[in-house]
Amino acid sequence: MTARIRYGILALVTLAVLGVPAYLIAQKERLLAEGRTVLLRLAPVDPRSLMQGDYMDLRYAFPDSTLPPEALPRRGRLVLVVGPDSVARIDRLYREGEPLGPNEQLIAYRKRQGRVQFGAEAFFFQEGHADYYSGARYGALKVNPEGESLLVGLRDEARRPLGPPAF
Q1: Are 154 and 140 in contact (CB under 8 A)?
Q2: Are 22 and 47 found together in one domain?
Q3: Does 122 reside within a domain?
Q4: Residue 163 in contact with residue 136, Cβ under 8 Å?
Q5: Are 56 and 106 part of one and the same domain?
Q6: Alpha helices in 64-146 (DSSP H)
Q7: Which end of the chain is more exposed for a tag (fewer CB within 10 A), N or C?
């Protein structure tokens, strides 16, 4: 193999190694900038896990849904109805091609070990900051029109953002 071919292969591998993460980061940044904020009610869980550092295990509640989690397929998209306060409730399983109403939003999910997951299922925080998040009642997610979501924070019962004070 000539040096020219080796350098060409090295350049392609380098481009892939740097390009794929850059593309994924750009995708998440676009979701943060353009996504719709929805608040999903959290189900009560043990608030912290000390085994992996300081973080909160998140589980989402289905309080108003007539769609029990055990009835859902392994993966798919759900239709959320989003209220004026950004609080969303699960309405139904999405069927491909079905039109959405003005207050409806798709969210992609998958089931693992009987739990419905929407992406990030843990919220990590700085050591010693657990008290700032102990009142968490909602997960704040940015969601794009296709239903991809990204956890952006936690909110209390009054839907105020939680976290350490900003200086």
Answers
A1: yes
A2: no
A3: yes
A4: no
A5: yes
A6: 130-133
A7: C
